[in-house]
Amino acid sequence: QSEVFSSAGLPLVEELVQGRNGLLFTYGVTGSGKSFTMQGHPDNPGLLPRCLDSLFNSVGSRLAKKFVIQPDRCNGFDIHSEAEAMMERQRVELERRHGGWRQLEAEAASRIRESARVPLGELEGDAFGCAVFVSYVEIYNKLAYDLLEDFGVPGQVLRAEPTSRALREDARRNMYVSGALEVECRSGDEAFAVFLKGCARRQVAQTALNAESSRSHSVFTIRLVRGCYDCRLGEMVPDKSLLHVSQLCLVDLAGSERSLRTGNAGSRLREASNINNSLLVLKRCIEALRENQRAVSAGGANAATKIVPYRESKMTQLFKNFFDGDGSVKMVLCVNRNAEEVEETANVLKFAEMASEVQ
């Protein structure tokens, strides 16, 4: 886990701190270890908790006071006064005295922590303050859901049927899940506790190949918001136009599966069909990108190119900006070495080979 994080996760954390976007996803057949690679165990953490720890190790001393920077519900952020922020801090602290939040924080704190940090580089000498926000959504049966929908609501029972969310494009043409809650965090433990809270709502089920098979694609997004800090007044400069937002999306894809081997039927079979279809669209998008790049390389900027079918799946539509070149994309391939999986594993490796050819 440590080696995978050093080669795949840590470089993306450094780019996040430097103000650039990143996308990291795990890919493979069902039961190949994707969720373990992303989450891990308390004594052997995966990519997600290690990314959180290294981020706060790097920017912890530059964090602004909580709730000074707040989401504006249109995928952007506003800067609030200290008085407004103080009222919000009091309200949230009251809410967190209820429910199982303290238990989640204790569970998050019981794990081994990542000690790595990344350099601030050119930002080292700048006067800036920042805030870290996390959100957690899933793509299930072609619809997007907010896994933090009931976060922070004291005494409220989780609804059996969560509300589906639309994908929208903001003023900067970035795709986002409309209405998804973003939670401000000040430590890796706090952010990981939010992740654990969302995991309780994620769609999982038992199949013939996996005791806890993911039935959805989950997307945990870390957003780092950086603004100018007035050292003389000891507060953030109240100008939202000076804010810079970068994000890192950590995606645990559901695994491809064949119904003959999993024994799926009914709703499980419908889930598998939707999972396989969305993964097929991802493959077609990667293939179209590769062919377009080859065409441009051979024929110049005026070469004929294919339309990339982003809109055929919610998952690929959400990450359209990344595939168009706005940030780095990394894929961690998880391989099941069982002899029974050889045919599906070969298909996974072929997809990885194709993806590695896309710049």
Set down the secondary structure blueprint.
Blueprint: H1 2-17, E1 22-27, H2 34-39, E2 40-41, E3 44-45, H3 47-59, E4 69-71, E5 77-79, H4 82-95, H5 101-109, E6 128-140, E7 143-146, E8 164-165, E9 167-169, E10 175-177, E11 183-185, H6 188-199, E12 204-205, E13 213-214, E14 217-230, E15 235-236, E16 244-252, H7 259-262, H8 267-299, H9 314-318, H10 320-323, E17 328-333, H11 342-355
Helix pairs in contact: 1-3, 3-6, 5-6
Note down, in words, how this protein is organized.
The protein is an alpha+beta fold and 359 residues long. The chain has a domain of 251 residues: 3-Layer(aba) Sandwich (Kinesin). A hairpin with a 7-residue loop joins strand 12 and strand 13. Helix 5 packs across helix 6. It is globular. About 2% of the residues have low confidence. Its main location: cytoplasm. Belongs to the TRAFAC class myosin-kinesin ATPase superfamily. Kinesin family. It comes from Macrostomum lignano. Pfam families: Kinesin.
